[in-house]
Amino acid sequence: MPETAPETLSVSELNRRARMLLERGFGECWVEGEVSSLARPASGHVYFTLKDDRAQVKCALFRNRARFTPALNNGDRVRLRGKVSLFEPRGDYQLIVEAAQPAGQGDLLAAFERLKHRLAAEGVFANQRPLPCPPRHLVAITSPTGAAIRDVLAVMAARWPLARISVLPVPVQGKAAAPAIIRALALANADPRFDAILVTRGGGSLEDLWAFNDEHLARAIFHSRLPVMAAVGHEVDVTLADFAADMRAPTPSAAAEQLVPDQHDLRRRLATLARRLTHAQQRRLEAEAQRLDHLRARLRHPGERLAGQRQRLEALDTRLQRALTRRLAEERRRLAMLHRRLGAADPSRDVAQARQRLATLETRLHAVMPRQLERRREQLAARVRELQAVSPLAVLGRGYAILENAEGEVVRRAQDTRPGERLRARLGEGRLSVEVKRRYR
Fold first, then answer.
1. Nearest C-alpha neighbor of 134 from the set 196, 198, 193
2. pTM exceeds 0.70
3. 56-70, 103-117, 332-346 — which is least confidently predicted?
4. Domains, the chain, ranges and CATH?
5. 3-state secondary structure of 364
6. From CA 246, how far away is CA 258, in angstroms rounded?
7. Are 139 and 168 a contacting pair, CB within 8 Å?
8. Beta partners for residue 404, in sequence order
9. Helices (H) and strands (E) in the chain, counts
10. Nearest residue to 144 (alpha-carbon basis) of 156, 131, 153, 135
11. The predicted structure's pLDDT at residue 2
């Protein structure tokens, strides 16, 4: 019997089976190495080679993952998480990258998070003091030759040339950096000239910025007498010094922008206010001029008013003379009529009868008066006793008083008075003048 012909695979089938075998056999894995041959085509995908001193592997970072991955550069040492696969059209063995991080940062980031949570629990990140804007005299703690201080000085010179800034030079990288920055903070707090502190440096790797994650430095910033602004690294870099400071800026230039106002903005604002003031003055002058014209039109010469008053006075005088003449004529007629009536009625008989009646009444009066006086005295005494029983003077005799205000009205409530008001107090015996000092409800 002839032998069965062996299975013959096409190249594409071979590559397909190899890809499936690689993907099922390895799954996800972490690989560490150095980035080289980096390419970023227009598609948004990133292609590069990961190598060490003995081997290399092609890598592909697709666009949907590249958006959430830190930027890679040739020469970077990175740790990659991905799946081993094969690019079938060319038969290239490759690593499909899911995530990337700088090599050696895993332990540092874990230590950073542990220290961050512990300091936050202790309240080291609780500073929120406002920084003066602009500061009277700012002290910058940074490298005197770094790009950070050059950016700060350039921005301040452009925005606020009057700014006063002193530099306390310190290393901003390495083991000596944190102790040097702590000593500089102590010097700045001891100098009465300064009223704000800026701790800053430019960007760098996590290892480069690690001095600013020092626990003692974070505590020194928290205990600083002067308010502290931290601007360490680029916008994505965050250190413990940033959390402990009173204010954080994403970059040294942004820190300078927050610390001082922009002279150009102030000039524009002043110019705007000056224009508004000028327009307001112009409108006010125009309104007052219009009001003056209106008043001038209403104003009449005093001579005209005097002439009018003189005519009115003459008219009133004429009316008065006529009224007096009529009244005198009427009174004369009435007096003549009364004379005639008096002459017609002789009063002598009425006078004699009135005298006789008066004598009779006088006799009766002398007889009745003593009895009436006695009875009236008794009634008066009874009324006096009744009046005494309900008289407010009897109440006053027991130690009470009646208060009256300046209009003589009785004061019944404290709310009817005011501090400093003069009142009259009627007592059981005598009166007092009192002054209200304080009012109680």
1. 196
2. no
3. 103-117
4. 11-103 (2.40.50.140), 107-261 (3.40.50.261), 394-435 (no CATH)
5. helix
6. 13
7. yes
8. 410, 424
9. 12, 13
10. 153
11. 52
- Residue in the structure block whose two tokens are 């003048």: 433
| Omega prior to 134 cis, within 30 of 0 | yes
What span, in angstroms and rounded, lies between the C-alpha atoms of 324 and 133? 88
Cα(164)–Cα(260) distance, rounded to whole angstroms? 11
Instruction: Report residue 3's pLDDT band, with 50, 70 and 90 as the boundaries.
Output: low
Give yes or no for residue 346 having a pLDDT over 80.
Answer: no
Q: How confident is the model at residue 19 (pLDDT cuts 50, 70, 90)?
A: confident
Separation CA 404–CA 412 (nearest Å): 9
82: tokens are 């991905």
- Residue at token pair 């002439």: 307
3-state percent breakdown (helix, strand, coil) of the chain, nearest 5:
50, 20, 30
Indicate the pairing of strand 92-102 with strand 56-61.
parallel
- Whole-number percent of the chain with pLDDT over 70: 96
Q: Give the count of alpha carbons within 13 A of 385, CB side only.
A: 5
Q: Tell me the one-letter amino acid at 75.
A: G
Which residue reads 């006086």 in tokens?
373
